[in-house]
Amino acid sequence: MTHRARRFVKGSITWWLGGLLALVLIGAGVGGAAAWAPDRSVAELQAKYAPAPSQFVSVDGMSVHVRDEGPRDDPQPIVLLHGTSASLHTWEGWVSALKGQHRVIRFDLPGFGLTGPAPDHCYTTQCYVKFIRAMYDHFGLQHSVLGGNSLGGALAWEAALAMPGRVDKLILVDAAGYPMTAKSVPIGFRLAQIEWLKPVMSRLLPRGMVEASVRNVYGDPSKVTPELVDRYYDLTLRAGNRAALSERFKQSVWGADADQITHIQVPTLILWGEDDRLIPPEHAQQFKRDIQGSRLVMFKGLGHVPHEEDPVATVAAVKSFLGTN
User: Fold this and answer.
1) pLDDT of residue 203
2) How far apart are CA 239 and CA 289, in angstroms?
3) Contacts from 278-282 at CB under 8 Å and sequence distance 24+?
4) Which one is predicted more confidently, 180 or 239?
5) Distances (CA, A) of 301 to 67, 262, 273, 304, 310
6) N or C: which end of the chain has fewer CB within 10 A?
7) Which domain holds residue 110?
């Protein structure tokens, strides 16, 4: 058998196994009323997930969910970007610790949270960086500390390169950037990449599947509370988000710009969970090698979202990096 044929067979088996697993999970979920999950409007979700200080701003044809907290005269605001299927809420612990001394701006990226899908359905890195630039323009930011987790981490360093002079420091939290070598991918991410399941997944979403996906990215799954699962579940149901997730995976090319990472010249803090199985710690070492003068802090027992799993320990490293007492 040729190499190409072996790859085809392996890909076909993976595809069918993924589809079979999806049907088993969905079939199990159909037994409960929670499996039937049509889209929810922003109006339905807003009371629970957008109380003050949330606001909605008009940028690039979208009503973007934003929280802007802390002293407005801060000359170097902190901007935080969440990861795939997350929302601005993931930074709550950090913001609570930082907003007394820093202006902190966070928002739901297109395709996620309450912001919802992009009008042009473009979820490439270039489109996201364009959106981030538009957000900077909206807030009049000429200097900033830019941080991000996972997808948000990749967008942070890409934006730093695209907007020289406007990003003074970088904080990369289990950031994407290199070709993927995941040891374990959340089931929700896997199903979102199966094209023929899209019509099914647009109406069915077993809550247990969302819980399994969230537990997968925690180093200690016992820290995953029912309230946390509810938030991820509810915001996934925001009208248009499930289709947007599928499109984002389709438009993603993991590691396409990895050779640009060595061009980053701003002070950079790299934070990583030692038990991250989605983007393993080896990638943290790659960032450390490629970004001259960068600082790396590893966190034992934490997974892919260490800022959410243990905000106290992780924000302490951020305060040290920023020189905040």
Assistant:
1) 62
2) 41
3) 278/150, 278/174, 278/182, 278/183, 278/184, 278/185, 278/186, 278/216, 278/217, 278/304, 279/150, 279/174, 279/175, 279/176, 279/180, 279/182, 279/304, 280/181, 280/182, 280/183, 282/181
4) 239
5) 30, 29, 7, 10, 10
6) C
7) 37-322
Residue 130 or 23, more confident: 130
Q: Which amino acid is at 8?
A: F
In a domain, 2, yes or no: no
Q: Is the pTM of this model over 0.70?
A: yes
In a domain, 1, yes or no: no
> Which CATH number belongs to the domain containing residue 291 in this structure?
3.40.50.1820
Is residue 127 pLDDT above 80, yes or no?
yes
| Interatomic CA distance for residues 242 and 202, integer angstroms | 6
Residue 32 confidence (pLDDT) = 45
β-bridge pairing 145-149 and 268-273? unpaired
List the end-to-end C-alpha distance of the chain, in Å, as a whole number: 63
d(CA 95, CA 102): 9
* Closest residue by Cα to residue 305 from 258, 271, 270, 254: 271
The reply to whether 89 falls in a domain is yes
CA-angle at 190, arms to 255 and 79, nearest 5°: 55
Q: Residue 279 — φ and ψ, nearest 5°?
A: -120, 95
Question: Is residue 26 situated within a structural domain?
Answer: no
What stretch of H or E contains 94?
A: helix 92-98
**What's the total number of domains in the chain?**
1
Whether 261 and 177 have beta carbons less than 8 Å apart is answered as yes
Cα distance between residue 206 and residue 31, in whole Å:
10
Which residues contact residue 145 at a Cβ distance below 8 angstroms, ignoring those fewer than 6 apart? 76, 77, 78, 79, 167, 168, 169, 170, 171, 322
